[in-house]
Amino acid sequence: MKSLIWYRSKLFWAIDEKLSSLGYNYHKENSSCFLENMSITRVAPIHMNQSDFFGLNTKVINNNIPPYKEVKVDNDLISLLEKKAIQVCSTGIPIDLLWSGGIDSTATLLILKDVVEKDKLNVILSTGSIEEYPKLYEDLVKYLPHRISHDKNIRSLIKKDYITINANVADSLYGGFLGHDNGAVYMFLDNAGETHSTIPVEFRVLPWYKFMYTWQQQNFQHLAGYVHDEVVIEDDYVPSCVSLFDDTDVLQWFVNKYIRKELPVLRNDHELNKTEYNEFRKVWEKIPIEGRLCQDIEDAKNIPRANSYTEMKIELRDYIAKETVNKKTQKGKLKVAPNIHGQPDRNNNSCKILLSVVMVL
Fold first, then answer.
1. Are 239 and 165 spatial neighbours (Cβ–Cβ below 8 Å)?
2. How far is residue 245's CA from residue 173's CA, in Å, rounded to a whole number?
3. How many angstroms separate the first and last alpha carbons of the chain?
4. What is the tens place of the pLDDT at every residue in 34-71?
5. What's phi and psi for 108, nearest 5 deg?
6. 122: how many CB neighbours lie within 10 A of its CB?
7. Maximum Cα–Cα distance for the chain, whole Å?
8. pLDDT tens-digit series, residues 139-159
9. What span, in angstroms and rounded, lies between the C-alpha atoms of 297 and 302?
10. What is the DSSP string of 310-330?
11. Burial class, 90, CB count within 10 angstroms (exposed 0-12 / middle 13-18 / buried 19+)
12. 3-state SS assignment for residue 149
């Protein structure tokens, strides 16, 4: 049996335009603001609980997103990530890690090196990964089995019969995606810039609510450069796209933190005029109550602020500092989107795959 589990945004928007022209306004009641944003960011939404919510009957793989309520889990994020790593590595299948040199993939690498059996851990990187974190490359990565992409096409190095681990959903868990357009009113999904967000804290979207629309596509985005004819599905996950952060307990840890208002958000120091402020308010009013980070302005005062994007990831930064000799390398570095040096063509049509048709084994 063949199933469609991932598709390029171009396909979604072509279908959306056709359905709208035929009078099928299936999404207008409760998701129009999401679609207005996603048409700009090139994200193709898949609702995690409703397979045909956006007009395409899709199959959701391994939905780990818990309900938005507090449930007790280990309070140490690294312990939860280590637990997930042990689970993934228990199969004995060789592991490839996509290492960008950034905070998320570096923390993942340091966890895996103590969990994966000897000679079973391989690292896929680009020359930009080395430039991003040269110290760790010299101290660790170059002594591990590794493959370097010199043509900015790291996803072409993914092997079909390996488990390929990435860390690309960590950005979403910490509140946003990098690279939003400050001038676009509907970019409320992308709360994370480099040092601040233009969006007032009181008008931001709850990250958990974003997951319901973007989690599947975020998980499988590395299929954009996949070169094999089939993608293997084993039980309820895709070995070619695995993340330690895609775990029920890890996600619950973040849910708990957001409910307690313990996770910082990027500060807002951009002065908005009255018109700009009201435009953000109009967008916020379209968001269902359960999708709002804050219910009112007073609520926003209880949320801690971070002065930079990397400052938000204190748990990962502290772990890297503890595990490496150079404690300043990741503490002070700025965030660089890994696709800049690893797969800059992932969102255009130059990659091989437009559709990902998978073979269920």
1. no
2. 8
3. 9
4. 555 555 455 566 777 766 666 666 677 778 899 999 99
5. -65, -45
6. 18
7. 61
8. 999 999 999 999 888 888 999
9. 10
10. GGGGHHHHHHHHHHSS-TTHH
11. exposed
12. strand
Give the bridge partners for 98, in sequence order.
124
Both tokens of residue 256?
Answer: 């708990």
Entry field: residues in the chain? 361
pTM to 2 decimal places: 0.82
Euclidean distance between CA atoms 218 and 241, whole angstroms: 10
| Residue 264 tokens, joined | 């910082």
The two structure tokens encoding residue 48:
């995690």
Q: Provide mean pLDDT across the span 292-297.
A: 88
How far apart CA 303 and CA 313 sit, in angstroms, is 15
Which tokens sit at 312?
């938000």
Give me the domains of the chain, ranges plus CATH numbers. Answer: 2-360 (3.40.50)
**Region of residue 102 (left: phi > 0; alpha: psi -120 to 50; beta: else):** beta
Torsion of CA 62, 251, 186, 334, to 10 degrees: -120
How open is the CA angle 295-301-306, to the nearest 5 degrees?
115
| Nearest Cα residue to 222 out of 163, 181, 310 | 163
